[in-house]
Amino acid sequence: MVWIENISYLVAFIVSAGTSAIGIMVSIQIYQQRKKPIFSILLYQQIFLFSFLIYGSWGNMALHTIINDLDLNDSISGKLNFFIPLIGIPFMLVSWFMLLKFAHNLNGYKFAKPVVFGFFPALAILIFVLAFLFHQEIIPIPGNADLFVVRVLVAFNLLIHLFFILPFLKINKNVSLLKETGFDKKWALLFFGVTLLYSGALSFITTFGFISVCVSIVLVFSASVFIPARIYLKTAGEGDAQNMDFAAFCKYYEISKREAEIILEICSGKSNKAISEKLFIALQTVKDHNHRIYTKTGIKSRVQLANLVREKTGL
Known about the structure:
315 residues, mainly alpha
């Protein structure tokens, strides 16, 4: 049975390492093709997530093997088993933040400043308080410290993913990025379902020995590439919406006739004032149209708009 266990761990390691490489490489490719800030957020999320998962799974196993070889007493061994996984928590915190930021930006929302500046301190303080309580033995460390830590992280992860799906449930007028990525409410809910699946597996990771450990690791690594894989398949299937004519571009981004006229004038290099004079509309109206165009196309400046039109249509 020992050789079966060793082969199982080896296969799980190969799958998890390969999945990590795929997730990061696909995210890099998406960002290089799209050149939009939101895809850099996804890339960072994947990097920090897999950094944590590699350490949290295989790194922990290696450290636990070393601890067991040292023949420490049960009290010290229990504390080390509890605190070692906490070393990788900063990577998980950044990954969670990037995941939430990705969901909000994808739906056209921005984090309020209190959220940006309060997210890390709040979670860090909470984790520090829990660690302090266990260190002082105010709360006794359970006999199976590893399983306890896993279940605590699973609970936090589910909470973060609940907040992840909230932006998808709101009525949102900015559909450009949702259409471009193909990651809409339906896929967000499916992703949450997958999260529930691997969370259940992780919560009982030691139930069937090495079998449940390997299955849980493979599940969590595979689920972690869900978002970039979906976006890659969607964009690859559409050929990145390249070589379309301007009419198709306007239809794809739901651009109105007046907005199309303004886009053409912007691409020709005219200022807002020059556009208002040529089209016989107020300057503020031009600015309002600009804002709606930026929202629909998911860009933030005239230069980005001109580049997008050129990339998609060749104009």
